[in-house]
Description:
alpha/beta; Amino acid/polyamine transporter I; 2 domains; two-stranded antiparallel ribbon; 29 helices
Amino acid sequence: MTCNGSSHKSSLKQLSFTGLLVTIGIVFGDIGTSPLYVMKAIVGVNLDFDADYITGAISCIIWTLTLQTTIKYVWLALRADNKGEGGILALFSLLRHLPKKWLYIVAAVGAAALIADGVITPAITVTSAIEGLRIITPTVPVTPVVLAIIISIFIVQQAGTEKIGNYFGPFMLAWFLMLGILGLMNLSAYPAILKAFNPWYAVKLLLYSPGWFLILGAVFLCTTGAEALYSDLGHCGKKNISVSWIFVKATLILNYLGQGAWLITNIGHDTLQINPFYAIMPSGFTLIGVIMSTGAAIIASQALLSGSFTIFSEAINLGFWPRLKIAYPSIEKGRLYIPSVNWALLAGCLLTVAIFRDSGRMEAAYGLAITITILMTTILLTFWLRKHGISKILCGIFIVVFATVEGIFFIANLFKFTHGGWYSLFIAAIIAAIMIIWRNSTLKRAKFIELRPIHDYTGLISAIKSDNEIPKFSSNLVYLSRSSNKSMIESKLIYSIINKQPKRADHYWFIHIDHVDDPDALEYETSIIVPQTIYYVTLRIGFRVEPQVSVYLRQIVEDLVNSGNLDLISSYPSLRDKGIPGDFRFIILHRIFSQSSNCPKSTSRLMRMHDIIRHIGISDRKAFGLDTSIVTSETVPLIINTSPGRRITGITH
Length: 653
């Protein structure tokens, strides 16, 4: 995390041509590839469509993009930023201190559904793009090509995508220009398609079409990338996103209108044998169109992968997920790579392709999960509006309008459940369950950590330091403390120093990590409990910052030495004469739930599930950046007694 990376990221948030170009390449990949499959899905709902049906469907698309994407996300949600960062978990971090404790469930469910959507997005976009090759070569083996491309996308993540990322903006600019031009070229075939701008045609379609819910399920696919747009706020800034959305929306609508005009002028022909997205292309342009579609699908997948890494990083630091190994293949701030998430998403994408085979079947699985995310975002936005002084009446209007619209979309997509919607909901349910269980169990465990006043033990610890009969354990002994109060310390830490094995050291360090709402915060505060002996350090780390404790402690020690508050030179005479600093040893305590606990069965089950889920993550040593440090692990029992247990009775004779 260098200053150059930070300033580069900050410059991209300023309204400029470069910022707009980068925004087009990063933010709109998901929503920008929706023309590949939306009209195909709409036609699939009604094989005997007429002009009114197509006009009404496109009217639904136009007003869905306007209401959901433009008004809710671009105009409103982008204002709900956390120090410039967006997304459902960043939004939750602004609300987590409200009395409404159940909001964490809303955030967990929304984030889990977004990840589930991310499993399907690369599969459906790449498959839809490659299926265009069948127009040129009907016998082309689509599935092997799709699998090869998807595997390549995930493999390249570990090396970083900084270099190829420089080409995302120009490529996606060309992509959107292509969408708009192709749509415009086909408008002359049926100019009356412009009536779709009149919302009455959308209302009429929904009122008089018996399968309106299926139509809405297909229409909703046009706005599935709106949540990703909000999540990418931190990369590009609201100004660049808002301005570039005007251009992106115009090209998308033009393309949908062009596809609609082609469909209406070809009623009676075998329109289902060809994707209308490719049908509007001149015959000699199809191969170029497939190449462009494949490139756009890859970029959309890349953007979604980066978003997934960010979501898990935030989830870890907000207490929703066990700690995972995080790598930083790029020097640019905010770019990260989580190997376990990458390979899990790859497995999910490959399974998606294997189960559904073609994009038509994937459409049934796509969209249902993301409606849940959008609904959850609406709930959180309502509380954010209220927190910022918006009246209850306006907040009520907001949630009624958007929850009604999104509720209708959710019900419409529920009809996809048996046709594939179960797949995304199953993935979302597993992820949400892990998030909720982990957060609840972690908070429950924290309640039963016994704290004691540290000043009750300063005299004894100082005496241990001076007791030459006790072998020196380390010059500097460092504990990670869960106590946020510098005057209190866990009883188990005291037990480790005094009772388990008396540990003599020159300096005792207690480090507490406080994950704060500011996503990029990185600061510390030091309290000297006993001069030259006991130090309590609070690290305030943002939820998007990697906790490299050993690195930060080294910097803190340098500050204390420079200020004269710490003598770091070793107390061993042979080393002190040479000015060699003392060594450091970290002690990590693992609290294992004790079966001797006297608590309700529900609490016992929760603790056991916590012990199972923690194996998903990595060790505390790796999680806190202590890989190159000397670390000792000690296991201590976590005893939860919520009711008095029986006491053994002695027998007297």
